[in-house]
Amino acid sequence: MKLAIKAGISYFALVLGAGFLLGSVRVPLLVPRLGERMAELIEMPFMFVVILLSARFITQRFALPPGTSVRLGAGSIALGLLLSAEVMLAAVLQDQSVGEYIASRDPVSGSVYLAMLVLFALMPLILGRTRLARGSSDDERV
User: Fold this and answer.
1) What pLDDT was estimated at residue 96?
2) pLDDT tens profile 26-46
3) Would you list the DSSP string of 6-48?
4) pTM for the structure as a whole
5) What distance in Å separates the CA atoms of residue 133 and residue 130, rounded to the nearest whole number?
6) Which of 9, 16, 100, 116 could be stapled to 96 by a disulfide with Cβ–Cβ 3.0 to 4.6 Å?
7) How confident is the model at residue 131 (pLDDT cuts 50, 70, 90)?
8) Which residues contact 12 (CB under 8 A, 6 or more apart)?
9) HSE, side-chain direction, 13 A CA sphere, residue 49
10) Range 47-72 burial, b when 16+ CB lie within 10 A, else e
């Protein structure tokens, strides 16, 4: 359990940090020119790469076993921390309730974002499954 917690916190920190950096480019540069939806959709592939690389890093750094429990635990902990941070930021910076924050999301980019959250939570497990299926150690090539 300690391993999942440490890996989950690190995974959360890596992805949140990268998301913050990408957001600092998206909001002032892309949103005024392209609109919120398009700017968020342009950012998604970059966030997917961040998620993939971060998951590979934590699975190697913490030597997560390829089984389900630790990897799913790490992803779930990271997801919980990420959602908590988002809700707190929405409440503090935008003075919104959870319901108002969810309602304010664009239906298209919000749906893609929801899918990305699921991938974020599952990526450490997915990497373990592909490693088992290939019989190789993909996690060692970070």
Assistant:
1) 87
2) 999 999 999 999 999 999 999
3) HHHHHHHHHHHHHHHHHHHHIIIIIHHHH-HHHHHHHHHHHHH
4) 0.88
5) 5
6) 100
7) low
8) 77, 78, 81, 82, 85
9) 6
10) beebbeebbbbbbbebebebeeebbb
* Residues with Cβ within 8 Å of residue 86, at least 6 apart in sequence: 101
How many CB atoms sit inside 10 A of residue 120's CB?
23
Please compute Rg for the chain using Cα positions: 16
Using CA atoms, how far apart are residues 40 and 46, in angstroms rounded to an integer?
A: 10
| Residue whose tokens read 């910076």 | 93
81 Cβ contact partners less than 8 Å away, ≥ 6 residues apart: 8, 9, 12, 16
Whose structure tokens read 């974020």? Answer: 120
End-to-end alpha carbon distance in the chain: 23
The three-class DSSP label of residue 142 is coil
Q: Give pLDDT tens digits for 79-108.
A: 999 999 999 988 888 888 888 988 889 999
Every domain of the chain and the residues it spans: 2-140
43: burial class by Cβ within 10 Å (0-12, 13-18, 19+)? Answer: buried
Cα separation, 8 vs 81, whole angstroms: 9
